[in-house]
Amino acid sequence: MRRLKTVAVVGVGLIGGSFALALRRAGGVATIVGADRDAAALERATALGVIDTAAESAADAARGADLVFISVPVRQIPTVLHDVALAIDPTAVITDAGSTKEEVVRRAREEMRDRFPRFVPGHPIAGRETSGVESATVELFRGARVVLTPCEETDADAVDLARTCWEAVGARVALTTARQHDEIFASVSHLPHLLAFALVSELGSRDNASELFSFAAGGFRDFTRIAGSSPEMWRDIALQNRDALLAELERYEGRLAVFRELIDKGDGPALERLMREARSARHAWLSGSKRSPSSE
Amino acid sequence: MRRLKTVAVVGVGLIGGSFALALRRAGGVATIVGADRDAAALERATALGVIDTAAESAADAARGADLVFISVPVRQIPTVLHDVALAIDPTAVITDAGSTKEEVVRRAREEMRDRFPRFVPGHPIAGRETSGVESATVELFRGARVVLTPCEETDADAVDLARTCWEAVGARVALTTARQHDEIFASVSHLPHLLAFALVSELGSRDNASELFSFAAGGFRDFTRIAGSSPEMWRDIALQNRDALLAELERYEGRLAVFRELIDKGDGPALERLMREARSARHAWLSGSKRSPSSE
C-alpha cells in the first residue's frame, strides 16, 4: 500500500490502539494522531508510543489526515462523524469500527451530508477479554474478518483505501450491505449475547443463586462468558439492531419450542437427531475455519 | 481411608478410568476389576494398567468387590444395577456417576429391591473434551464437586464409604436429595446445553448457514461449545430430567420475554441494569470459586 502521511485515530482503546500499532508496523503510515474524550487514555496512548500526537478533539485530529479511523462506542459515532465531516479534506477517507451498521449509516448520512461518500462503514470482528489501549496489540487483526458495508453513494477509492489498510494489518475483508451485516451479526453474535445475559440474569435473580452457581462447571462458564461483556456496549448494540435482533429471537424461540415439544412427549430419536445435526454443523464450521475464530 | 481389597468399575471410559487411576494412586484399593460392554475398551483399560483384571460381565466384576462404581451411560444404569444387585456381598457398596438422579433412584429401587440401601447415588461434576479410557487421568476429580444423593433407606456406612473414596481422589462432596440435584443441574447444566443445541440447530438449518458461521467468532464458539457434546448423552439427560428441565425452560423464556420487551420499547436504562446485574453475578461467582470450574 502507499504510505499514508497522517492517520487520525478517534478513540484510542483496544481497537483503535491495535489498528494504530498494526498499521505502523505494516509501514502504512508516517504519523498517527490520536483523540479521545478520556484524557488519561490519550496520555497513556502517547506514552506507549501507540500515537505520535495527541489532539484536543476529533476534529483537530482529523484535520489534514488521509484516513480517520473511528473506534468509539457505537452510540457516539454520529457525533464524531459530524465533527470530523466538517474538518476533513475532500479526499480524506473516514471509516469506523462500530458493531452495528444500518443505524450508523443512517445517522452518517444525516451528519455528514456532502461528505457522506467518503465514509466507509466497517466492523472488525476482533477483540480480547481486556479493553483499553494497554491491551492493544499489533496482532489483533491478523486473520480476523473485517466487514465493510459501503453504500451506493460511497466513493470507490474510499472503499479501496479502507480495504487496503485492513489487508495491510492482516485482516480478511468481506463486503456486505449494512442490512446484511446487521442480520448476520444479529444471528451469530447479538442473539447469543442476549441469550447468555438472560440466563445469568434469571439464575442470578433467585434466592439460591449462589448455591446454584456453586454447582456450575466449565460448560456453564463458557456458555456465559459473553455475559461478562460490557453492559453499555451490548445495550447499545441491542437497541441499534433492534429489528434484526428481535426477528432472530423469534426464530430462536420457535426452534426452542420444537425442542420443548420433543422433550415433553419423550421423542428421543427426533431429539437426538436435532442434537446430532447441531453438533455436526458446529463441527463442520470449526474444521472449516482456517484458524480458530477470533474473539469479539 | 481403609484400603479396599477390591473395587469393581463398570464402564471403563473417561470417568470410570479416572476414578480407578485416582483411587489407586491414593492408596485406596488393592485390586481393580473392570467390566465394559465394549470388549476393545476393556482390553485397552487392561493394557493401560487402569484395571488389574477384566471381568466378563458387570455381575462378575461385582462379585466379591467392596465397592462397585458404575460409570455407564445413564440409561444403562438400571440394567447394571439389576445385574450387580444379584451378585454383591451384603456389605458391598454401589455408587454411580449418572448425570441425573431422580430417575436413577426410582429405577434403582425397582431393580435392587432389598439391596437398595447399599446404593449411594452420585454425580461427579467433571469431564474433558475427549472421552474414552485413553483420556482418563489421575487428576480429573481433584477439586471437582461430587454430589451424593442418598435416600432415607440408604445405609449410613455406605454413604460414608462413597464419600471417603471421593475425598481420597481429591473431590469436594456435597449431599443433596435427588430432586434438589436434578433441579440444580437442570438450571446450571441441562438448560444451557439445550439452549446451545437449539441455537446451532436453528442457524445450521438455514440455507445460508455456512455464510453465517463464517462470520462467527470466539464468543459464538464458546457459547456453543456444549453443543459439541454427545447427542445420545444429552438426549437421555433431557428425557430423564424432563420435568425439571421444562420448568427451567419456562422460567428462562419468561426472562427472555422481559429482555425482548425492553429492547422492543427501547428502554436502555432497564436493559443495561439487567445486563449489569448479570455480569456482576457471573463475576462474583468466578471470583468466589476457589479454582476455575471443572469441565463437564
TrEMBL record, chains A, B:
One of its GO terms (molecular function) is prephenate dehydrogenase (NADP+) activity. It is an enzyme of class 1 (oxidoreductase). It holds the Pfam family PDH_N. It catalyses: prephenate + NAD(+) = 3-(4-hydroxyphenyl)pyruvate + CO2 + NADH. One of its GO terms (biological process) is tyrosine biosynthetic process. The keyword Mitochondrion does not apply. InterPro entries: 6-PGluconate_DH-like_C_sf (IPR008927), NAD(P)-bd_dom_sf (IPR036291), PDH_C (IPR046825), PDH_N (IPR046826), Preph/Arog_dehydrog (IPR050812), Prephen_DH (IPR003099). Pathway: Amino-acid biosynthesis; L-tyrosine biosynthesis; (4-hydroxyphenyl)pyruvate from prephenate (NAD(+) route): step 1/1. It comes from the Bacteria. Keywords: Amino-acid biosynthesis, Aromatic amino acid biosynthesis, Coiled coil, NAD, Oxidoreductase, Tyrosine biosynthesis. Its EC number is 1.3.1.12. Residues 235-262 form a coiled coil. Residues 5-293 form the Prephenate/arogenate dehydrogenase domain. Belongs to the prephenate/arogenate dehydrogenase family. This is prephenate dehydrogenase. It comes from Usitatibacter palustris.
